Amino acid sequence: MRRATRLVAGVVPALFALACGTSCGRSGGAVAPPAAATRATERYEIAERIYDGGLAPGWQDLGWAPHELTPGGPGHFDFSSGGWIVAKPGLSGTFGALVFRVRYPPGEAEFLEVRVDSPQKDIFPRVKITADDRLDLGDGWAEVLVPMSQLDPDGLPFDRVVFRAFRPIGHERFEMDKIALIKPDPDAGLLPVARAARAHGKPLPLLVDCRAVASRIDPRIYGIAYYANDDQARRHQWTIGATMRRWGGNTTSRYNWQIDAWNTASDWYFENVATRPFRSFLDDDRAHHLGSAVVVPLIGWVAKDTTSTAFPVSVFGAQQSVDPWRKDAGNGKGKDGKALPPGPPTRTSVEAPPELVERWIESIVKADAARGDGSRSVDTYILDNEPMLWNSTQRDVHPEPVGYDELLERTIAYGAAVRKAAPQATIAGPALWGWPAYSFSAVDQKAGFRNKPDRLAHGDTPLLPWYLQKLREYEARTGTRVLDLVDVHFYPQEDKVGTDAVDRGTAALRVRSTRSLWDPTYVDESWIGEAIRLIPRLKEWIAANYPGRGIEIGEWNFGGESHMSGGLAVAEALGRFADGGVSAAYYWTCPPDGSPAYWAFRAFRDFDGKGGRFLDFDVPTRGSGPEASIFASRDHQGKHLVAVLLNLSPDDVLDADVDMAACGAVAQAHAYTYTGGPLGFRESPPPEVQRGSTTLTEALPAYSMTVLDIDLDQPMTGAVNGSGSARR
């Protein structure tokens, strides 16, 4: 047994099993433990069998969601539009708990709700099933125990059981089997199953190397790219634990700070619209102790008003699509779907030279100085947004593709203006949209990457290395540094990965695709078809061409936010940013409240609801692989360690044996586990430390995140590289 069962003082954990199937008898049979799980020796008698490869005698199927009851096997259910009621008229007896087995679609977060009921009353509680109620059995199956004290606290008569989803879910079917009401045990406190024992899983050896040098984690990696107008959404963003917000996106390329207006570009009919003042964005961040990153326009044009549109139907004629609320605003494509030649930029915009940007930043610096506290409202100025897409996203004012020389010229002109107005500011760029833009210009893309005329004209050097070389030369020549962080965007290109698709294949591919951030052996499974190894690649380019620059992932998102695969992808990315020494990163946009992606942020930022977080220095680890990852952190004093463990397998429980020999004796440890659903992390029994051993053992449920919060007896011996940051 890899983990000792922990008993709560004065209470015997209630464990159960229904593995014996129909051979146990239809009622009153002793329940034997399944081979798939390690159990205590307690046995519980079935008082009323409901379903075991078929409905038990006297029980009726009352519908209502699509389902199929396979003779001799589990039932298959689609709860996207309903639930399932089973009833036995005249049911009587005294029961201790409802037990059943369930196998969710791989990666699906918690969604089941159960209650008992009667024809006369609708007064029974609805109980949401969480990870606390489940015991993982392997192969995706789990057993659930719900005490009658929760289902029927007043001891009222009932004759039916109702299963349904408490939140919207997809049409993919799940399975249930071995449903029963068990007899009460006067000596057993019916504790939630996940607290009573852990399943015996596959061994997972891990190591935390506390003797190695720990590198400072830049807190700016926990950023979001979000600017919500809705009050509820605005409130939600402050709970995720973000450290930074980015004012960015296509609209900011043409933001006019003098009138608080921008153009919606190709995202929405190329319309000028009013927006909330940038100062309210900065003030909100200050009020919530977040840093701000602001995109500044380099394109040379900003919105001239809040009413103009680039392709009015009254001028360009009928178009493929028009704004439903503004019938004269077309999408700039004819009925045949071909792009219409744009009119003059002045139809929507006014010129925005570097001097306009300089005056804007001067106004921010002046307001900062007036506060008298020495703080800066803006941590980072980002030099525009995805310039290699301007000829499509901003084609009404910039129809021609951007080349090597134009990108460099605009960077120097506007970057120098930013530096002049805010000498101490961090400047990031060039905010390239994705893989092709790292190595080719938009001129190359238009001509075809095989032809790559622009790249060949610049020594056949990939775009980003060439850009860094030239900025290094500019600084050496002028003494002006116009770039501190190398900013690129990263979105997975695999089919459906970046969407809400959560079928088994897409979910698995989504998790694997995160390896393109760091793994030199992983060949990207999209049209890219080669090893991206984004973070190491950027480090190499910087070291060779402009040493001292940091890395900023200006936008990133792996899709599937409401699915465990999406949550695990977020947690994996955040861990890799910390481990890889990334300087800043901004999630696009902000994970939905209570989603697995939301709780992935909280794994690093507030796992216990009391401010518990990943610490200031990254500690080297070993043992991560295709099925699991481990990320570790420590404080400056070396007596506090926080580790995030990810089980990336949708089916298998993993027994993590964490070698802590390099860290010293553990004074105390707490474990927090998340397996899906809106309720977040739940504290588990303390991790097991075998007597005389420095190995800490923790069972990791399938598709889960686990945080270990560890205090050590003595400071660890490893040194730290860099100093901590005050912004947390």
Outline the structure in words.
- This protein has 728 residues and is an alpha/beta fold.
- The chain has three domains: 12-200, Galactose-binding lectin (Jelly Rolls, Sandwich), CATH 2.60.120; 206-213 and 630-721, Sandwich (Immunoglobulin-like); 221-302 and 366-607, TIM Barrel (Alpha-Beta Barrel).
- The protein is 20% helix and 27% strand.
- The protein is built from 16 helices and 41 strands.
- The strands form nine sheets. Strands 37-36-40-34-33-31-16-41 form an eight-stranded mixed sheet, covered by helices on one side. It has an eight-stranded parallel beta barrel with strand order 17-18-21-26-27-28-29-30.
- Helix 6 (354-371) packs parallel to helix 8, helix 12 (463-478) packs parallel to helix 14 (534-545) and helix 13 packs parallel to helix 15 (564-579).
- The longest helix has 18 residues, at 354-371.
